């Protein structure tokens, strides 16, 4: 059995009209320093975003959101931020902003070692809508 891994995560939010402070959760960033793990998953529900702002520029929003997993992957494609250590990239991604793309406060958790499954679990709980009964 693998040791439990401590991890940090933040929920990615789209705030179409910052002045109204309404948002839709669209993803999760998960970091585990001990495992060298940094990944993000994003799922955009355009209908929910348009309910908050019918004039939202979905192409622009999606383009900005696509940068988050690229920064998590790191490397030249996400330079100069992508060249920083994973933990530094996590802190840069989760820094407080007054922009259309924001993150929740950082939370801590513990899992049995399967960080990809933990990320999927967080997406299910924090981003996806619950299934509607029958």
Number of helices: 4
Q: How many strand elements?
A: 5
Q: Tell me the distance between the termini.
A: 39 Å
**Beta-strand percentage range:** 15-25%
Mean pLDDT: 93
Structural class: alpha+beta
User: What's the shape?
Assistant: globular
N-to-C SSE string, H for helix and E for strand: EEEHHHEEH
Helix content: 25-40%
Model regions low in confidence, pLDDT < 50 over at least 5 residues? none
Please compute the radius of gyration using only Cα atoms: 15 Å
The main pleated sheet reads as:
5 strands, antiparallel
Write up this protein.
There is one protein chain. The chain is of the alpha+beta class. It is 32% helix and 25% strand. The protein contains 4 helices and 5 strands. It has helices at 46-52, 58-73, 86-93, 115-126; strands at 5-14, 24-32, 37-42, 101-103, 107-111. Strands 1, 2, 3, 4 and 5 form a 5-stranded antiparallel β-sheet that branches. A hairpin with a 4-residue loop joins strand 2 (24-32) and strand 3. It is globular. The N and C termini lie far apart (39 Å). The model has no long low-confidence stretch (mean pLDDT 93).
């Amino acid at each position: 059995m693998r040791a439990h891994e401590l991890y940090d995560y933040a929920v990615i939010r789209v705030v179409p009209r910052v002045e109204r402070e309404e948002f839709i959760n669209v993803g999760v960033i998960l970091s585990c320093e001990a495992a060298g793990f940094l990944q993000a998953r994003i799922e955009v529900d355009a209908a929910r975003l348009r309910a908050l702002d019918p004039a939202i520029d979905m192409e622009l929003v999606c383009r900005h959101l696509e940068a988050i997993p690229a920064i998590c992957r790191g490397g030249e494609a996400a330079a100069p931020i992508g060249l920083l250590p994973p933990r530094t990239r996590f802190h840069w991604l989760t820094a407080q902003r007054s922009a259309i793309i924001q993150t929740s406060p950082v939370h801590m958790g513990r899992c049995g070692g399967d960080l990809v499954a933990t990320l999927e679990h967080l997406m299910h709980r924090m981003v996806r809508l619950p299934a509607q009964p029958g």
